[in-house]
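so my prof wants the structure for this chain in the tokens format not the other one, which i didnt know existed until like an hour ago. anyway here's the sequence
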Amino acid sequence: LSTIVDIRNGYQFRGKVQPGDLASGARARRPPGVVPVIQIKDIDADRRLQTDDLVLVKVDGDQEKYEARQGDVLFLARGHRLFATAITEPISGAIATGYFYIFRPKMKTILPRYLAWYINQPPFQTVLRTFMKGTQQPLVSRKDIEDLEVQIPPLSVQEAIVELDDLEVVEQRLLAALQEK
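here's what i got, hopefully its the right format
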């Protein structure tokens, strides 16, 4: 994994993320040092990032190394649900919380959405779970995931997989709506 992506840590907040008196929204006009924060709650049940209501916070220090941008993959490394999501739309100056690792592809031979899909597959998840440490708030360490193998098919195959994954999400939503009716 570490040969195909740069792995960064999310920003470690001291305590709970507090928005203060700032408005929410990734596209709002912001004073210097105020950034949108990507939290677990911003990822929906389909493991898609929802950026409309990102909380804005004042961050001291260099937030650039914690920045998450379009084309990155966020990997939730803490908790009992390990998953990845690709950032598919532009978000200006957003940072991810310390629950995430930020994977930034080093090469154009892997699609971020394919990488997120691959990480979310049961065989990869089974391997990840062997590295979980702790009981209340389990963690997969950066060192443990750096050497994990990722199969990279040709881009055309990756694109087909991503399209099928999108169709599966649509199918699940339609089935849920049908059951509700």
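also thought this was worth mentioning. The helical segments are 112-119, 122-129, 142-146, 155-180.
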